[in-house]
Structures are given as C-alpha cells and as structure tokens.
C-alpha cells in the first residue's frame, strides 16, 4: 500500500457536497493500493454539519485533526442563524456578505489562511517516504500547504472542487487584491504535479488562462454517486407534481429565478398550481424565504431544514422532478454541482435552470436526463415545465431516460480508480 497525505479542511462531521468527495476517495482508494491519511481540523464551527457521515469513515483510516486557528472557527456562531437537526438551516445573506467582504480585505486568499502553518506542520509529521501530497479546496488556502511543501520537490496534486478566481463568490475588494489572488492561483497551478478539477469546462478554463502549462497536467475527475448511499427499495414518487431541490442555496444562487419560472409556468398552465408542490431542502438564507412570501408562494414553496445525506438521497426518489439551479454567468458555466451525479443515479428527471452551453447544461442535454432553460428565460422554463407536467398527468410518475453508461461513469469506485491512476503517474 502506498501513502497519500490528503489535506482537507472540511471532513466529517462537517457536511456539504464537497465533504462527500474527500470521504468517498478515502473509502475507495485502498481498493487500488493507496492508503490515505487525512489532515483536517477538529470539529469546526462551520454552519453545515452531518454527524451521520462520521459512521462512513473507515475504521483503519488515519485522520489527523489539528486546531483550526481560523477566523470562522474563532467567530463561531456569528451570522450563523437558525439551526436544524442536521446543521444550519437559515441565516442572513446580508450578514454573510458583510463578513465575506471584511475578511477579503485582510485575509488572503480566504478566512481559513490561519490554518496553513498548522496543516503544514501536521503534513510534515505525517509524511512517509514515497508518499504523495494532495490538497483539496475549498478553502483555496489549503493549496498554500502544497505550495510551501513543493520546495521539497515532492509529488503534489491540487484538487479544485471549486474554481478559485473563477468562483461565483470571488469579489476582491481592490485591483491589488485581485492581482495577488490570481498570482497565488497561478503559482499553485504551475507548482503542482497535477491539477484535478470537477468539470471539463473548468479544465479548459485553466488551460486557456494559465499560459504555457502542459494541457495534460489539468485533468477532470467529476463528483459522483455511491451505490451504498441509495436505498435498496426505491420509494414511489409523491402523487403530486413535486419539484425538489436538494442542497444549499446561497447569495449567488438564490430562489428568485425559480420563482420567475414558476410564475411563467402558472400563466401557461393555471390548472397546474393546485397540483404542484416545491420543496427546497437544505441550508439557505433568510432573503430566500422572504422573497417566496413576497411573491405569494407561501402555500406552494416549502423550505425544509438540512437532512442527513442518505435521507436526502431517499427523498430524491420521492420527487417527480429534481431542480438544478446555477447562476447565469460565465462563472456559472464552469460549475457541475456535486448533486448532479446523485440526481442522475436516482432516475428522476431533472429541470436544470443553468447557463446555456455550460457544464451542467451540456451533461443534462446530452445524457437525456431532463430539460434545461437559462435562469434568465422564464418563458423557456415554463414551456419545459408544461411538457413535464403533461407527461406527469399522462403517466402518473416521471422517469428520466438517461444514458445508463453516462450514469455508470460517475460511480465513486470508478472515480477512485481514476484518481489512483493519476497517483501512480506522479510517483512514476
């Protein structure tokens, strides 16, 4: 068994889609002769938690937990908001934007930069001859651990679960801050042995923006699904026309575009309102709830607190239609949200309100998984909803016609094998 030192600030009991990637790689890499050691923090005060994920950590997995020493950990509950049983339920987007703005002035690249020296020391202590280092972001500061240790000429893989300077929330306060961030990103990309991203669109973006790098250095390993998370007996879909969004809403990806599409849909099919229900399960901001009330959707749109990951998987099967939403921007085109492979695996059709021609749009359209409409074109979304509603009335239960091979390609075990192949390459 070869050794991988895996630096991941977010790890169970922290929740969220990004945690799944690290956890599943840690579970399945040993099947391919790679034994990870996770370097992470002690239980943090991050607003998303899922204690059930801790039971999935393999008993023989070495997890090194350090002090966090970051601003989010020290501030704790500031702007944390109301909490549910499985983590944060709702908080103020205004407070979040203010905290983000203040931290971006004084902390580069992000509020978690205080963990870099702590994690670097932990990696040095955990290091084994012949090991490979892997750092995963968010937070972007995790890659500074690899940048510091790259002077030792060790094999190092930088895994970008999200883009860095192309992230939708990337808003540097000054041109100087922007230059510093871009310079740090470029140094990481040039110094790492391999760059892993979660969509081909992001891979192309790196290859085009960072001049002179070998295109083969940037590879895509998307997020995936784990068959062990899915119920053996699939529950039947709800008899109503239930639209379900599973996962976090945020200031860059709020509920307003969805409400625009619903209004246009009900103008086109007034009879549909009495049979339609919308559930948004997961962390969100108080502004989303207020907007739904202001638009007169209190009787139709229900916000639900976060649930444990496997409970969320079960609820996918209970919906008639799964909602995917992304910001209509150049940055949004790069994103293939972590929930998409699990949506595909559920067999329920997807309505994707995503940028046209982006990573999510291309996958949904080419795989036959559902329908797409730009977030800024409610009339187009209304027509897609009307077609799906007509099929629901005719069939009683909607099923996606997704290419089975596309679904199979996102199996976490297959993706772990791809990562193992890359690890083999960098040590050879």
Explain how this protein is built.
With 428 residues, this protein is of the alpha/beta class. The chain has two domains: 2-224 and 412-427, Glycogen Phosphorylase B (Rossmann fold, 3-Layer(aba) Sandwich), CATH 3.40.50; 227-408, Glycogen Phosphorylase B (Rossmann fold, 3-Layer(aba) Sandwich), CATH 3.40.50.2000. The chain has 16 helices and 16 strands. The protein has helices spanning 17-28, 71-75, 93-106, 116-126, 142-149, 175-191, 200-209, 256-268, 286-294, 309-318, 330-333, 339-346, 359-367, 378-395, 404-408, 412-427; strands at 2-7, 34-41, 62-66, 82-84, 87-91, 132-137, 156-160, 194-197, 218-220, 241-246, 276-281, 284-285, 301-304, 321-325, 350-353, 370-373. Strands 3-2-1-6-7-8-9 form a seven-stranded parallel sheet, sandwiched between helices. It has a six-stranded parallel sheet with strand order 13-11-10-14-15-16, with helices on both faces. α8 links the parallel β10 (241-246) and β11 (276-281). α4 (116-126) crosses α5 (142-149) and α5 (142-149) packs across α6 (175-191). The longest helix has 18 residues, at 378-395.
């Amino acid at each position: 068994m070869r050794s991988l030192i895996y630096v991941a600030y977010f790890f169970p009991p922290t929740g969220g889609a990004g945690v799944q990637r690290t956890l599943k790689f840690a579970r399945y890499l040993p099947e391919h002769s790679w034994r990870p050691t996770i370097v992470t923090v002690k239980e943090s005060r991050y607003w998303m938690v899922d204690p059930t994920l801790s039971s999935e950590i393999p008993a023989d997995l070495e997890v090194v937990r350090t002090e966090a020493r970051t601003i989010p950990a020290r501030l704790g509950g500031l702007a944390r908001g109301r909490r549910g049983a499985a983590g944060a339920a709702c908080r103020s987007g205004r407070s979040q934007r203010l905290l983000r703005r203040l931290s971006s002035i004084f902390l580069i690249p992000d509020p978690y930069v205080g963990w870099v020296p702590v994690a670097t020391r932990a990696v040095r202590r955990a290091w084994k001859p012949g090991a490979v280092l892997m750092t995963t972001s968010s937070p972007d500061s995790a890659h500074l651990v690899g940048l510091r240790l790259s002077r030792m000429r060790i094999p190092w893989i930088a895994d970008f679960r999200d883009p860095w300077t192309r992230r939708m929330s990337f808003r540097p306060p000054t041109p100087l801050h922007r230059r510093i961030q871009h310079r740090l990103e470029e140094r990481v990309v040039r110094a790492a042995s391999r760059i892993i991203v979660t969509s081909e669109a992001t891979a192309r973006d790196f290859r085009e923006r960072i001049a002179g790098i070998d295109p083969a250095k940037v590879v895509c390993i998307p997020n995936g699904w784990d068959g062990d998370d899915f119920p053996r007996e699939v529950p039947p879909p709800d008899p109503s026309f239930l639209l379900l969004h599973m996962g976090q809403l945020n200031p860059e990806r709020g509920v307003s575009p969805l409400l625009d599409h619903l209004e246009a849909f009900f103008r086109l099919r007034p009879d549909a309102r009495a049979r339609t229900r919308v559930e948004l399960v997961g962390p969100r901001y108080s502004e989303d709830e207020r907007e739904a009330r202001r638009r007169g959707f209190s009787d139709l749109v229900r916000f639900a607190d976060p649930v444990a990951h496997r409970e969320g998987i079960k609820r996918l099967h209970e919906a008639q239609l799964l909602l995917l939403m992304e910001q209509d921007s150049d940055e949004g085109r790069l994103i293939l949200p972590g929930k998409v492979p699990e949506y595909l695996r559920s067999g329920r059709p997807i309505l994707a309100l995503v940028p046209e021609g982006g990573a999510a749009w291309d996958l949904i359209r080419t795989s036959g998984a559902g329908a797409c409409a730009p977030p800024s074109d409610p009339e187009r979304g209304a027509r897609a909803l009307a077609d799906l509603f007509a099929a629901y009335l005719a069939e009683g239960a909607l099923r996606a016609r997704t290419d089975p091979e596309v679904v199979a390609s996102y199996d976490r075990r297959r993706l772990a094998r791809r990562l193992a192949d890359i690890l083999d390459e960098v040590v050879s």
